[in-house]
Amino acid sequence: MSAPSDTAYMVDLATFPVPDYSDTEHETWTRLYARQRELLPGRACDEYLAGLARLELSETRLPRLVDISRRIEQYTGWRLTRVAGLVENDDFFTLLAGRCFPSTDFIRKPDELDYTPAPDMFHDLIGHAPLLTHSRFAAFFERFGHAGKAAFASGHPATEWLPRIYWYTVEFGLIRAAEGLRIYGSGIVSSPGEVLHSLSDAVTRHDFDLDAIAARDYDIWHMQNDLFVIDSFDQLEDDFAAWCREARLG
Ligand SMILES: [Fe+2]
After folding, report:
1. 34 CA to middle of ligand 1, Å?
2. CA separation, residue 144 to residues 12, 64, 104, 127 (Å)
3. Percent of all residues in the chain with a pLDDT value above 90, rounded to a whole number
4. What range(s) does the Biopterin-dependent aromatic amino acid hydroxylase family profile domain occupy (predicted)?
5. Residue 79, helix vs strand vs coil
């Protein structure tokens, strides 16, 4: 595992200043989190729900990234760093390869409860952080970082394929559980509209196939009508490892 400190995005959360959140911002967190806590049981997968519980998030106060990072680290060694917004590809992959996830520390405006075009800390912490505590997902995500670094360093065609794989797994993945279809993608679990839509008849659900995913473009502006379903997080990691070997990546 390479250290992620060779990117300017790595900050020491123990000393990085925590924003002085307003009552309105805490209220936005309270409302968003209450709504998702209501929706997610029976729809999100058990691995995600167990991860969410491990984070011990406050129901009424915006969390501090340093606290969440420490909780995640106990389970998988993954940590958070604080970023102001989207991260450039090579830095993003370098962070992931070093088991570090870039999180924002700001919350959306009250009139953006249903939708925000750019990730905020609700998306990052409710969407991404829980599965960082799951060992197989964590291993897959680190491997994804190494593959991305290798692809961007060599101008490999996977520079086009990997964002699609990210989209259809990390952001919009579904999983077949013993009890039925469940959600694990961060773009779904952090959005009430996508939670209900992703499990509805409006969506065509495909068996997990990384070649098919790599060839399928995605639309960031609308609800997702085509989703891919994994059988397990073992499958996600094992298939991705095999796909990387085939593509000569990482
Ligand atoms: Fe995301």
Report:
1. 20
2. 24, 27, 21, 18
3. 86
4. 1-250
5. strand
- The answer for residues whose C-beta is within 8 angstroms of residue 107's C-beta and 6 or more apart is 21, 25, 28, 29, 62, 120, 121, 122
- Enumerate the domain spans of the chain: 4-247
Q: Which residue ranges are tagged as binding site?
A: 123, 128, 171
Residues in the chain: 250
Mean pLDDT calculated for residue range 50-62: 98
CA of 104 to the centre of ligand 1 (A): 11
Compute the distance from residue 96 Cα to the ligand 1 centre, in Å.
13
Instruction: Quote the tokens at residue 72.
Output: 């995640």
Output the CA–CA distances (angstroms, integers) from residue 115 to 21, 31, 105, 108, 197, in the order listed: 20, 14, 17, 9, 14
One-letter amino acid for residue 232 of the chain: S
The total of other beta-carbon atoms located within 10 Å of residue 135's CB is 13
| Alpha helices for the chain (secondary structure H) | 23-39, 46-55, 65-76, 89-97, 121-122, 135-154, 158-166, 186-189, 192-198, 210-214, 233-247
CA angle 129, 134, 138 (to 5 degrees): 80
Q: Among the CATH numbers 1.10.800.10, 3.40.50.2000, 3.30.930.10, 3.40.1490.10, which is that of 4-247?
A: 1.10.800.10
C-beta separation of 99 from 146 below 8 A: no
Ligand 1 center from residue 220 Cα (angstroms): 12
Which amino acids are annotated catalytic?
A: 123, 128, 171, 190
Q: pLDDT (tens digit, 9 = 90+) per residue, 101-139?
A: 999 999 999 999 888 878 999 999 999 999 999 999 999
- Which residues are documented as binding site for Fe cation? 123, 128, 171
